[in-house]
Amino acid sequence: MAGIEVTSLHKRYPDGTVAVEHVDLSIGDGELFVMLGPSGCGKTTTLRAMAGLERQTSGDIHIGDTLVNDLPPAERDIAMVFQFYALYPHLKTRDNLAFPLRAEGRPKAEIRERVEEAARMMRLGPLLDRKPHRLSGGEQQRVALARALVRRPQAFLMDEPLTNLDAELRADTRTEIKHLQAQLGATMVYVTHDQVEAMSLGHRIAILNKGRVEQVGTPLEVYDRPASLFCAAFIGSPPMNLLEVEVAEGALRAPGGLALTPPPGLRRDRPLVAGVRPEALEITPAGADGTVPGRVVSAEVLGDEIIYVVDSGGRDVRVRMPPTIRFGTEAPVGLRHTGGTPPVYDSSTEELVA
């Protein structure tokens, strides 16, 4: 396995469209690294540049110690798994797995050994003699993963491989990928727009926006301390409440009078926005000590929790509560902050300031 270094990557198409503005990434040997962002942010273009399927306009890509800018895909020693499984419809599973090894001219005994090993790891034994049209979506994805495994590459590149699966299969296949990566100690770069996939899979996550990297960090780092207002709004379901605040009487004051603990050293000479997670708020019966008045606008009952939308000072605020606490729509409630010091952003630059 090998690490991947991307330096000053830029991609501009002949029509002038800029897909990647500037990307720097350092992906460790044996790391499961996730690139996360909305459609059009440049994550797939960056991945395809790593694979050699796109030629960058400028910048360098190293896989291990090798500069691969001028190497074709076949010489980069990577394996790619696509959103669409790209299986050969006329070949049985066994032959789909063997195809890349046969193309390399490997000996028959080695091909048989590698195919059997990959099939065992992905639990494909009973499916080896079936063609793709006789496989479910989840089974086809496992075949695509196994076909990447047989090559034993320096790195695996995965472009939204679970998008076409239903929710239950996505969860099962996520578990398989994470277990597989840990078992192999493989370097994997995984592209997705699904933050649940990113948070559950990645050792680290890079959040991309408009062709640039907004933040790189562990799942907990990007969740607890988003580096920008974009990251704060993008990570979390429901997302952070972004509240305009003022520093007053030793506290941050949001619309409606909600008090938040200010970070130390916070300057007052800028427009400020505090990021408050829904689980860092609670609602109580109206008039409870230490609360500000609010009104329930809606409630989303999810079984193990209820997400309330509360009007506080003319601003809708999302609050995550246990299912045992029930308030009806239009009910008057008390609202308070319960959890630590929130991250604070300069609303003019959208950057984290404290």
UniProtKB/TrEMBL annotation:
<keyword id="KW-0067">ATP-binding</keyword>
<dbReference type="InterPro" id="IPR003593">
    <property type="entry name" value="AAA+_ATPase"/>
</dbReference>
<keyword id="KW-0813">Transport</keyword>
<dbReference type="InterPro" id="IPR040582">
    <property type="entry name" value="OB_MalK-like"/>
</dbReference>
<keyword id="KW-1278">Translocase</keyword>
<dbReference type="InterPro" id="IPR003439">
    <property type="entry name" value="ABC_transporter-like_ATP-bd"/>
</dbReference>
<dbReference type="InterPro" id="IPR017871">
    <property type="entry name" value="ABC_transporter-like_CS"/>
</dbReference>
<dbReference type="GO" id="GO:0055052">
    <property type="term" value="C:ATP-binding cassette (ABC) transporter complex, substrate-binding subunit-containing"/>
</dbReference>
<dbReference type="Pfam" id="PF00005">
    <property type="entry name" value="ABC_tran"/>
</dbReference>
<dbReference type="GO" id="GO:0016887">
    <property type="term" value="F:ATP hydrolysis activity"/>
</dbReference>
<feature type="domain" description="ABC transporter">
    <location>
        <begin position="4"/>
        <end position="235"/>
    </location>
</feature>
<dbReference type="GO" id="GO:0140359">
    <property type="term" value="F:ABC-type transporter activity"/>
</dbReference>
<dbReference type="InterPro" id="IPR027417">
    <property type="entry name" value="P-loop_NTPase"/>
</dbReference>
<keyword id="KW-1003">Cell membrane</keyword>
<dbReference type="GO" id="GO:0005524">
    <property type="term" value="F:ATP binding"/>
</dbReference>
<dbReference type="GO" id="GO:0008643">
    <property type="term" value="P:carbohydrate transport"/>
</dbReference>
<dbReference type="InterPro" id="IPR012340">
    <property type="entry name" value="NA-bd_OB-fold"/>
</dbReference>
<protein>
    <submittedName>
        <fullName>Carbohydrate ABC transporter ATP-binding protein, CUT1 family</fullName>
    </submittedName>
</protein>
<dbReference type="Pfam" id="PF17912">
    <property type="entry name" value="OB_MalK"/>
</dbReference>
<keyword id="KW-0472">Membrane</keyword>
<dbReference type="InterPro" id="IPR008995">
    <property type="entry name" value="Mo/tungstate-bd_C_term_dom"/>
</dbReference>
<dbReference type="InterPro" id="IPR015855">
    <property type="entry name" value="ABC_transpr_MalK-like"/>
</dbReference>
<keyword id="KW-0547">Nucleotide-binding</keyword>
<dbReference type="InterPro" id="IPR047641">
    <property type="entry name" value="ABC_transpr_MalK/UgpC-like"/>
</dbReference>
<feature type="region of interest" description="Disordered">
    <location>
        <begin position="330"/>
        <end position="354"/>
    </location>
</feature>
